[in-house]
Amino acid sequence: MSIVVKSLVKRFDTAERGAFLAVDHLSLAIRPGEVYGMLGPNGAGKTTTLRMLATLLSPDEGDAEIAGVSLRADPLEVRRRLAYVPAEAGLPECLTGREVVRLFARIQGVASPRERADALLEAVGAIRYADRACGELSTGMKRRVVLARALVHDPAVLLLDEPTDGLDVPGRREVLALVRQQAASGKAVVLSSHIMGEVERVVDRIGVISQGRLVAEGTLAEVLATAGATTLDDAFIALTGGE
Amino acid sequence: MSDLRALAWLTIDLVRRLLREPQVVRSLLWPVALVPLTLMLTVFAYVWLEGDWPVGVGPSTPTEVVERLKDEGFTTVPVEAPRDAVLTGGYRYATDGDTLWVSAARGRTLQVERVLREAKGARWRMGPAIPPNANEEQGGRVMGVIGVLFVLFGVVFGAAVVARDRDDGTLEAQLATGTARWIHGASRWLAGTFVLALHYGLAILVLHAILGVSDAGPVTRNGFAACSGGVAVGLLVIGRGGLKNGFSGPLATGLTVATLLAGLGLLAPGVARHVPIASLLAGGDGWTALGSACALGGLAVGMFTLRSARS
């Protein structure tokens, strides 16, 4: 397994909501080459789970293994084996896409960082505007650069938080095609989304999260059967209580 | 080794980003430009006030006095009543050979007085004016004040390089890479210090060319310590390594701390000369302040690392 999540728990205590469980004993396992769609309404705990897996948040209980390395035992090694793509692009406006990808290659000790960065920008279709400042790029262009940046150290696991957020239809299709392509090369991909259509098209399995708990999991057919629904939209509403 | 390489690349990247931002460069060049501008305005005002006013000479003024005044570079104009000439505002100085009437005492007035005394063979007379030397101590003091401006910029930089990257997702993307967390704090501290020190060094060069800066070594070291200390204070106050707190509140705290430290330099110079920022106005050789600034930077980086790991 590329990702094994074992009873992960995260609590928050905020002024608005008080103390609450953002992730409630979540367990799941994802194979290499698999695209796993993490579905759930806003605030269900998808981003918190991804951020814990990326070692940006420390879990209160439980553990996870990323490519065989425990999150708690060796977070640095975990980070070396994964790439996390947050919902925000995280691209400095005054740097070019090429500079950003090269920087990430260099700080992660990639051999021949210039060649690697250029090859990836070419692969994701961003080479044409690689020398334009990131502040001048459209959302779709930024997504491609961000994907190149994430893949630069050839991670075994790819965590994508709302990767198609803000994209138009062609942009979505292109990004999802890139996701499929990465899975085909053996990477485990976790993709969080609340857009049912894109999830149906690209994922191998679905996990539906509601109030921090995994309420259904399986292939599209299995989730539909669990919810007793004919479409993923209906299944989503049935499983999450229409939150 | 790989950590140091990552640190170097992240620092270079951040320096490049800071120097590409017109607002950053403008704000740092402003104090550098302020020095010559202020000095030029002062010189202009001085020359305008001093002026090349003619000396009114009454009918009874001996020719010898008139000739001596001309030799000293004055223009002499015959007037009927020297006292009235000054009273009516037409002249700043006028003489009848025995008395000198002036409307205000300035350097040139003393020069006229000297000519008169010499011509009259007075028992005491003034020697020729000695041109002022460049007042190098003043240069050091001005650099202290400019240094305080750089400290305030340093606090803003230290806080902003975290807050801005936090808000646009850059920090999160960097923290999720396979690099040690301390590298991201250290690169921000080093880059902020470098960019500030670069402009502070430029300010010293400009001021030294115009006014002269005595003990340029200690002034430079204290200034670099202050720049580094300012960035460290900014990093210390910004809060959870990026992670959640706002910007304005921590920034206000940082600016207050920096201002208090600068004030310490005037209140307790004995202690302050070892403290970065405070040593700007307290003097000292700058070595211990530089060492303390490195320690403060280390503390800021350590805090950043802890906070980002706990978030």
Tell me about this structure.
The complex is a heterodimer of chains A (243) and B (311). With 243 residues, chain A is of the alpha/beta class. Helices cover 37% and strands 27% of the residues of chain A. Chain A has nine helices and ten strands. In chain A, a hairpin with a 2-residue loop joins strand 9 (205-210) and strand 10. In chain A, helix 3 (97-107) crosses helix 4 (113-123) and helix 4 packs across helix 5 (139-151). The radius of gyration of chain A is 18 Å and the shape is globular. With 311 residues, chain B is mainly alpha-helical. Chain B has two domains: 2-40 and 136-310, no CATH class; 52-120, no CATH class. Chain B is elongated and about 95 Å long. Classes of the chains: A alpha/beta (243), B mainly alpha (311).
List keywords for this structure.
heterodimer, A: 243 residues, alpha/beta, 4-stranded antiparallel sheet, 9 helices, 10 strands, 37% helix, 27% strand, globular, B: 311 residues, mainly alpha, 2 domains, 4-stranded mixed sheet, 13 helices, 4% strand
Distance between the termini of chain A: 32 Å
| Global morphology of chain B | elongated
Shape of chain A: globular
Beta percentage of chain A is: 25-35%
The count of DSSP E runs of length 2 or more, i.e. the number of strands of chain B, is 4
Q: Give the strand order, joined by hyphens, for the main sheet of chain B.
A: 2-1-3-4
Oligomer: heterodimer
| Class of secondary structure makeup of chain A | alpha/beta
- Radius of gyration based on Cα positions of chain A: 18 Å
Domain tally of chain B: 2
Number of DSSP strand runs of chain A: 10
- Helix count of chain B, per DSSP? 13
Overall SS class of chain B: mainly alpha
